[in-house]
């Protein structure tokens, strides 16, 4: 199994912490956040890792190297100009397996990642998005996904709190068939804003529902909350 981690963001909401440190390297319980994520993957025997770096990416590469110190094999693809989440994935095409996970470098979801890939394999979809129902425990993130009766994503709308059909929130773990790369044009491309709508229109994006809430390090307040989970 292969996991691709999006680790190139600027982390502006964590300024000044991220002025000199990339967001995935912000320390939690004395350890860079990204190391917590990598150790979780290793515990699940997911050792083929591709890190998509950007802002201050050399710090990530110098810290983890080839990944052998964590029992992993790590490859890197670093963007020199902003490419967005989709563009960064397209740039890494030569490193990607036939099916792979995509994990946001600022979120933590302790679930069985093999289950997400199995959902992809068992469906007719090109992509799977893991979704969480905020009614179980509020994450502080507005619901942004609706599923149809068969589990395909019917709608994705960010920051639409007034849309009651949006029962779920994207939880930061995706899975894709390599064929998704054919949908990504060159340049700066957002998976959520540009690729999700294409897959939804083609009925090629499926929802993997989890009852495990996710945590993220997007703001100082959320950083404190995730620290409680990882200490």
TrEMBL record:
Pfam families: NTP_transferase. One of its GO terms (molecular function) is nucleotidyltransferase activity. Keywords: Nucleotidyltransferase, Transferase. The keyword Nucleotidyltransferase applies. Residues 3-230 form the Nucleotidyl transferase domain. InterPro entries: Mannose-1P_guanyltransferase, NTP_transferase_dom, Nucleotide-diphossugar_trans. The keyword Translocase does not apply. This is N-acetylmuramate alpha-1-phosphate uridylyltransferase. It comes from Novipirellula caenicola.
């Amino acid at each position: 199994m292969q996991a691709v981690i999006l680790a190139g963001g600027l982390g502006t909401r964590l300024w000044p912490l991220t002025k000199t440190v990339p967001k995935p390297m912000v320390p939690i319980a004395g350890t860079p956040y990204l190391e917590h994520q990598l150790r979780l993957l290793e515990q699940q025997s997911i050792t083929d890792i591709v890190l998509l770096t950007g802002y201050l990416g050399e710090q990530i590469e110098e810290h983890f190297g080839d990944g052998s110190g964590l029992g992993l094999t790590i490859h890197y693809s670093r963007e020199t100009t902003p490419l967005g989440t989709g563009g960064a994935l397209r740039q890494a095409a030569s490193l990607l397996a036939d099916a792979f996970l995509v994990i946001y470098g600022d979120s933590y979801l302790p679930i069985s990642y093999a289950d997400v890939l199995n959902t992809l394999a068992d469906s007719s979809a090109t992509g799977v998005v893991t979704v969480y129902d905020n009614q179980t425990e509020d994450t502080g993130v507005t619901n942004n996904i609706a599923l149809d009766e068969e589990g395909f994503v019917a709608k994705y709308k960010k920051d639409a709190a007034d849309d009651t059909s949006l029962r779920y929130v994207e939880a930061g773990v995706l899975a894709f068939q390599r064929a998704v790369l054919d949908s990504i044009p060159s340049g700066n491309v957002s998976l959520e804003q540009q690729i999700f709508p294409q897959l939804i229109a083609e009925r090629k994006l499926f929802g993997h529902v989890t009852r495990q809430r996710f945590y993220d390090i997007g703001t100082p307040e959320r950083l404190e909350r995730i620290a409680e989970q990882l200490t």
